[in-house]
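Researcher: I'm preparing a figure for a lab meeting and need a structural model of a single chain. I don't have an experimental structure, so a prediction will have to do for now. The sequence is pasted below. Please return the structure as tokens so I can convert it later.
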Amino acid sequence: MIQIANLGKSYDDLKRHLVLQGLNLTVNDGEFLGIMGASGSGKSTFLRIVGGLETYSAGKVSVFGQDLQTMKESEREQYRKNVISFVFQDYNLLSGLTVKENIILPYTMMEKDEKKIEQDYTVIAKLLGIDEFENRYPEEVSGGEQQRAAIARAVIKKSKILLADEPTGSLDVGTGRKVLEMFRKINADYKVTVIMVTHDVLSASFCNRVVFLRDGQFVKMLNKIGSQENFYRSIQEEMGKMDEIF
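Model: Understood. Here is the structure written out token by token.
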């Protein structure tokens, strides 16, 4: 379980800039949560804090009872290695490794059985069409192909928590749907908690719950009731209201 109480994040420059303020949220184990909001609303910062990549200025973030702010750096490293998987907007692939080597690297570091790694990789690579370019290096493939590799790298670990920052942004519609279906499957089958930042209504409709960020504050929450189509329309309506404000 992830518990967030009065979370605040600010940067000090010529004037104090609040990015997040007074956020309260409980994310249950095995939930598929969407975070939506305009550009600059604090979505990515929120995700990086939960992922242990950024500190915060106020409040508390507790994951499985452990306060992220009081962790030692060695504990943070273990948290990111064993608990969290992250799909970054900028892919974060290592240029000296092939696409396949990038994908299986975190799994290898967990000292998993080589045969199991290869089996899991083969399933994901085929699903996302990665086997077609698996032996190329990141600089030799397109942005969309790098995104697919980044998603496969995160999913293959089957971590307790998967954090995804605009995971379908560089993908075509068909591949994007495959990724979202895969997120939904690992969420349902392996009880992986998924938190996804997205501006896309269709992507958000795959979630069980969506919270909306505006100016660093949660302003609305929607729970999925009924069909995905009904949830899609509810999210679309709420996003329309937010657009009117801006």
